[in-house]
Design brief:
Blueprint: H1 8-50, E1 54-55, E2 74-81, E3 87-93, E4 99-109, E5 114-123, E6 143-150, H2 155-158, E7 170-171, H3 176-183, E8 191-196, H4 215-258
Helix pairs in contact: 1-4
Length: 263
């Protein structure tokens, strides 16, 4: 009754089923790895944001590469803004996906070192994409700024090309080594995404808190792939039983038609 399983069609179907099962199992395992990675990142971000603020020079220094554990740490710095060497970062969006600039202002510490401070987002000038936009001034004089420590931006990590020949005082990436050469100064590694003092009046829109990655979605995908893997042999068995039943009924019909009519 199951001799049809040796047919070419059923051999191919069986081989495909045997290949699908381990493939789906591996896809489920990969989704669980993604779930673990995203859960760990979410916990790391949460821990960093909730950690007690520390002076920025405890975590970074000129030439330092901000590590994963240092990213998003809340830090403070005392000094004053240097608006003469302020630049804007092109093609940045706000929470409403409007395209504009990030304002990057050197913050000169009391010891003379420089901390790059991303003061936030401003809209692009629709009349001109080459002229330096109108940038709200930061507070003058000595003050203490607070923000999240961020690593230098690179093309590999961000996907943003570091274009050359840009208009004056416009850049594509926030990179402390690049800015150190431009400023001819000792620039701390990474930069600060400013969160304080609170914005007043006509000031750049400060950057929002980093959102949580949806790790639960990867967990659901993993369960889904494993259910698919379990469903393959069940589906194969159901199809084989149906084929056997259909062939048995066809054979019975042929026997009935071939039987001699009663005299």
């Amino acid at each position: 009754m199951y001799r049809f399983l040796l047919s070419r069609q059923w051999v191919i179907l069986t081989l495909v089923a045997l290949l699908l099962i381990p493939t789906m199992i591996r896809l489920g395992i990969w989704q669980m790895h993604r779930y673990d990675e995203r859960t760990a990142r979410n916990q790391l971000v949460s821990d960093s944001l909730s950690a007690k603020p520390v002076p920025v020079e405890r975590l970074t220094a000129p030439g330092h590469t901000v590590t994963t554990n240092e990213r998003y740490r809340t830090v403070t710095a005392k000094g004053h803004f240097d608006t003469d060497d302020e630049v804007v970062v092109r093609r940045r969006t706000n929470a409403d996906d409007e395209v504009g600039y990030h304002v990057l202002t050197p913050f000169v510490l009391n010891d003379g070192k420089v901390l790059l401070v991303n003061r936030g987002w401003i809209p692009a000038d629709r009349a001109s994409q080459t002229a330096f936009p109108k940038v709200p001034a930061p507070p003058s004089g000595e003050l203490t700024v607070t923000g999240r420590l961020m690593p230098d931006e690179t093309t590999e990590a961000s996907g943003i090309k570091n274009l050359q020949g840009l208009p004056d005082r416009q850049i594509m990436l926030i990179n402390s080594e690049q800015e150190a050469r431009r400023l001819d100064a000792q620039v701390l590694g990474g930069y600060l995404a400013q969160t304080g003092p609170a914005p007043k009046g006509d000031t750049p829109q400060q950057l929002g808190r980093p959102g949580k990655e949806d790790a639960a979605l990867n967990y659901a995908y993993a369960i889904q792939w494993w259910l698919f893997a379990a469903g393959v042999p069940i589906g194969w068995f159901v199809l084989a039983r149906r084929e056997a039943r259909d062939q048995a009924q066809a054979a019975a019909s042929e026997e009935t038609e071939a039987a001699p009519a009663p005299v």
